[in-house]
Design a protein that fits this description.
Blueprint lengths: L2 H7 L4 H5 L7 E3 L9 H8 L8 E4 L18 E4 L6 H7 L14 H12 L3 E7 L7 E3 L7 H7 L2 E6 L7 E2 L2 E3 L5 E4 L14 H11 L7 E4 L3 H11 L7 E6 L4 H6 L15 E5 L4 H7 L5 E3 L2 H4 L2 H6 L3 E6 L2 E3 L4 E2 L2 E2 L2 E2 L6 H10 L4 E5 L12 E2 L17 E4 L2 E4 L5 H9 L4 H14 L8
Parallel strand pairs: 1-2, 1-4, 2-3, 4-6, 6-9, 7-13, 10-11, 10-14, 11-12, 12-13, 14-19, 15-20, 19-21
Antiparallel strand pairs: 5-8, 15-16, 17-18, 21-22
């Protein structure tokens, strides 16, 4: 049977594909842009009265799937390793919150053990570009854990969307790997380029002083990375590299100006290595069919051993709270999860062991109304530590950068107080003394 005949024999409607799911299954959706549009997932949800005990894994959801609504909780048991978007944050604040503890590099490895414990049949529903002349569909802009889950799945459904761009790397899979195809042309989710705030620009300016020629960058989401890209564009830096879980905003301009070349990378020289992309149309146009860019699973991209082989890795990520010993909280507000570890710790540790590597954690000094300091004597009750204090390096606010490498806890407290908002510094000093990090005043 030719690949075309095989494809046609497995082509079906969303309702027909949804019948592949059985009670007791574990259903995975890819991250972000790898997720299918509504028809297949909602058709699975519509079977709530005939199915039982179905586990559903969704991370960084971009669409309002029915499965996420309370009416479907008796049948579909939600699980997530990264919230961040409105459909998932609603669940994170509810009794149905069910966080899957993992990092970007090891999500599939951890699930392998879960599969042994609970012995569920595993399936994945993904979005792909149509097959090429050789019968290979393409994953487009998301390879985060898709291949790893596909390799352990008992079934796979592909939503075929001609609007998914083709990319290079570990992105091509033969039609024989799938049990069903559902054709559904739908628009790609496009996010506007983030306009950084005044505070974010100030933070980015401090970060710029920590960079140098031939650095290899990893950046996370948010306004500060956008500001950093804009500042780098006018900086005169040369021969930067990119090895990043997420495609940095503005890299199209940095490549065009010859700032990002990757020529001095030790691993994958001349290549931009990514795990997924989420951004504006300019970014997507740059990534599509670009032989300079390779998308790989994050079991590779975020692998600490791979990262550490690269010289001058600079890991730039955001946090929401840092205590005076240097513990960085990046995924929760108190006891409520708002995102997940993602690849932050993977890259922090990788940068630690990289020759010339640096990890930079960013945070505004206060909440948006300046009512609460984000540098604190103790992290909030219930907060999850994303980066332990022995791996934090630079903490950067709009008031400066604190290099914690090689500092004692009292020295760290002093350095962090110095970059806190001025109106909280006296209070933080008092908290440091009460905690025993600074000596009590005797006058």
């Amino acid at each position: 049977m030719s690949w075309k005949e095989l494809y046609r024999s497995r082509l079906m409607t969303a309702l027909e594909a949804a019948k592949i799911v059985q009670s007791g299954d574990s259903v995975w959706l890819p991250l972000g842009l790898g997720q299918p549009d509504l028809p297949i997932v909602d058709a699975i949800a519509d079977r709530k009265d005939e199915l039982k005990n179905v586990e559903v894994m969704i991370n960084l959801a971009l669409r309002p799937y029915k499965l996420l609504e309370p009416a479907y909780r008796d049948t579909f048991h939600f699980m997530s390793g990264f919230y961040s978007t409105p459909p998932l944050l609603k669940i994170a604040k509810s009794e149905w919150a069910n966080f899957f503890v993992s990092q970007g590099a090891d999500m599939a490895k951890r699930y392998t053990n879960r599969k042994k414990i609970y012995k569920r049949r595993t399936g994945i529903v993904m979005q792909v570009a149509p097959p090429d002349e050789h019968g290979y569909v393409n994953l487009g802009f998301d390879t985060f854990y898709t291949e790893d889950i596909l390799n352990m799945a008992e079934w796979a459904i592909a939503e075929v969307n001609p609007n998914i761009p083709r990319t290079y790397g570990q992105t091509n899979f033969h039609v024989s790997r799938f049990n069903a195809f559902v054709e559904n042309p739908s628009p790609l989710v496009v996010l506007p380029f983030v306009i950084p705030s005044e505070t974010e620009v100030k933070i980015a300016e401090h970060v710029l002083h920590l960079l140098k020629d031939r650095d290899c960058l990893q950046v996370g989401l948010g306004g500060v990375p956008a500001a950093i890209s804009t500042l780098i564009k006018h900086s005169g830096f040369k021969d930067l590299g990119i090895h990043s879980e997420l495609a940095p905003p503005g890299i199209d301009c940095l490549v065009e100006k010859g700032i990002v070349t990757g020529l001095y990378k030790k691993v994958n020289p001349g290549k931009i290595i990514l795990g997924f992309a989420l951004g504006d149309q300019n970014l997507y146009d740059f990534l599509e069919r670009n032989p300079m860019v390779e998308f790989r699973p994050c079991s590779y991209v975020n692998n600490i051993g791979v990262i550490a082989q690269e010289d001058n890795i600079v890991a730039i990520n955001g946090s929401v709270e840092v205590d005076l010993t240097g513990q960085a909280v990046s995924e929760s507000l108190g006891n409520t999860m708002i995102s997940g570890p993602g690849g932050q710790l993977d890259f922090v540790i990788g940068a630690f062991w990289s020759r010339g590597g640096r990890a930079i954690n960013l945070l505004p000094s206060t909440t948006s109304n300046e009512a609460i300091s984000r540098i604190v004597p103790y992290i909030a009750q219930g907060a999850r530590v994303t980066v332990p204090r022995h791996y934090t390096r630079y903490i950067v606010t709009e008031y400066g950068a604190a290099d914690l490498m090689g500092l004692t806890e009292p020295e760290r407290a002093k350095a962090l107080i110095a970059i806190a908002h001025p109106k909280f510094r006296e209070e933080l000093e008092k908290g440091a003394r009460e905690r025993g990090l600074l000596r009590q005043k005797t006058f």
